């Protein structure tokens, strides 16, 4: 049964009926993986919450240079996304590949201590951390897809992303707490933070190994069919028109999304906030994400995942416009950060919930990695382009251009993504 058969589930509204809200309906694997992501994000956000501020205000990088750094921060995941996805399918050990990625990111936290103040060393450690993320993401999402009934995939990814966001919300607060206790003037204080981050990441790896179960039942493969996982078979996924459409949409959506760091830097400058507020911007965004990811994921299962995805990008266009309007002060910042977190809640897990059912089980991780890779490459290009636009046009014109790009992307995505339930064979 090829990918075309599974296109019948794209954007299909499940039968209406009582859907109990709670973790039990999506299974223990989703909750376990959510716990792993929660711990990992606490560890990661402890370190990364102030990096944009550090690069621009301390290292005095220009907006264009920061765009390159920010794009590479995401682009560093690209080489290992496809490798991790293919290996997980080839070895049929998605949990093991995911654990390797989580472990690599954990070890990178110790590298921060060894790197000291070397920009080159810090860059290498950041690349290693992001490579670990690239290696683990597709296998993790494949585990979620396989452990959840298709009508509940939006909810499952929403619950996972909500737990993930809880870690992203807590991370900067944990970092501020540690630095408040040990001080912020010595290198030893930051080494204490990095060491704490390492042990929290180790706890995440242990949670994955101990509590996560991997399904081995090929539910979507006919009896007697060989589960061939080869480079040729993986490349064959691209012959399916429906998957290509999904990849086109993922690329367009990635191209219209600028980095969080840019959003927070513009907010700080346009709203005249002191630099000390900067780490709290991520906290505000992640609070909205945490509260809404689960409900919006469940709503996407009811009203259609494509509709939810496009609604989220409409909110992103509103964020870009509000950043360059005279709307100022703390209320304006709260509205902007709330909308930004809602955008993530409406899009992040929903795209994966759209992609999972399209793919055959034995190549599902590879296919999810393809979608994520296209997004990451597009994001790299978007960050560089926005940095250049800011440097050459100014922040107002760059922000307006970003909003227009999102609007165009929404219109094109309506056409590119199929809007009706397709029958087997329609996609070819």
TrEMBL record:
Pfam families: MFS_1. One of its GO terms (molecular function) is transmembrane transporter activity. Residues 29-421 form the Major facilitator superfamily (MFS) profile domain. It is found in: Cell membrane. Signal peptide: none annotated. Gene3D superfamilies: MFS general substrate transporter like domains (1.20.1250.20). Its main location: membrane. It comes from the Bacteria. InterPro entries: MFS (IPR011701), MFS_dom (IPR020846), MFS_trans_sf (IPR036259), Sugar_transporter_CS (IPR005829). PANTHER family: C-METHYLTRANSFERASE, MAJOR FACILITATOR SUPERFAMILY TRANSPORTER. This is MFS transporter.
